[in-house]
Amino acid sequence: MSDRTLSKPVLGIESSCDETGVAVYAAGRGLLAHRLYSQVRLHAAYGGVVPELASRDHVRKLLPLARETLAAAGVGLRELGGVAYTAGPGLVGALLVGAACARTLAWALEVPAIGVHHMEGHLLAPLLEPDPPAPPFVALLVSGGHSMLVHVAGIGRYRLLGDTLDDAAGEAFDKTAKLMGLPYPGGPALARLAEQGRAGVYRFARPMTDRPGLDFSFSGLKTQVLLAWQASDRSEQTRADIARAFEEAIVETLTIKCRRALAATGAHTLVIAGGVGANRRLREQLAEAGAREGFRACFPRLEFCTDNGAMIALAGALRLAAGQHADAAIRVFPRWELASLPAVAA
What we know:
Largest sheet: 5 strands, mixed
Structural class: alpha/beta
CATH topology of the largest domain: Nucleotidyltransferase, domain 5
Strand order of the largest sheet: 3-2-1-4-5
Order of helices and strands: HEEEHHEHEHEEEHHHHEHEH
CATH superfamily of the largest domain: ATPase, nucleotide binding domain
Number of strands: 10
Distance between the termini: 19 Å
Mean pLDDT: 95
Number of domains: 2
Low-confidence stretches: 1-5
CATH class of the largest domain: Alpha Beta
């Protein structure tokens, strides 16, 4: 791969679940354009993501969105130096749509392509900000499918510190919202409702904070909420009070574990990424803890907390610049360990 190729823009494609994201990123120039299409309205009637419908909608939207993004970036297809796409984890059908499109484009343009780990994309999303964090740091990755703490010594040099034993934080938000009758998508709806709740009316446990370790478990918290809701008058104010207590329990649990991870590793920088990283209470509490205790809390902007093509384009560009790419075979990994990724030389 030539130096000239490495300086060319990289097209990034995200299609791991129910959002189609496309972006163009160029080394030295940064993010040139990004576009996102959400399938929320499509799946709302079913109360959750229907995998086959998600795959079909990616087929329908991906190429038009790619054309729109390239036009917004002012980049022609022949100007691309590589293509990056989410290869996993995620829904296998949705992943295959993005992988097939990316590999076909790369083959036709005779440029390299690389499959990106979805959670590495989230982990690196803060690097899109004007003052990006530098390794080593601790990353809290919290989304609908993941709640993990990772020590990051460099790109591809990841050590898992703690993981969820059952429900991820975002999954707990969604399931709790559903059991209280909130509309889909439940997590954001519950967070909005929590703003109307009164402090101290309900209090739920901070799971697994009374014992050593950095693992998470949120299924018991969900059960506590269910019992409280069933025993309540089920008024709108009560619903809001329970939502606030639930959110406070999640946020305080995550904060306690983050502080432990920083102390255990000696790191002074905390990166928070993933969909739950958009939660206002979590951002405020970790920022306040950082100011009080002397660590830096780094968040991507809100539009890059949820799934997006920008994080995939960035992660792919970094790995392509390091000479990493694969053959033309279309491969995806619905389950994929983050720690298994190869390192990128500093």
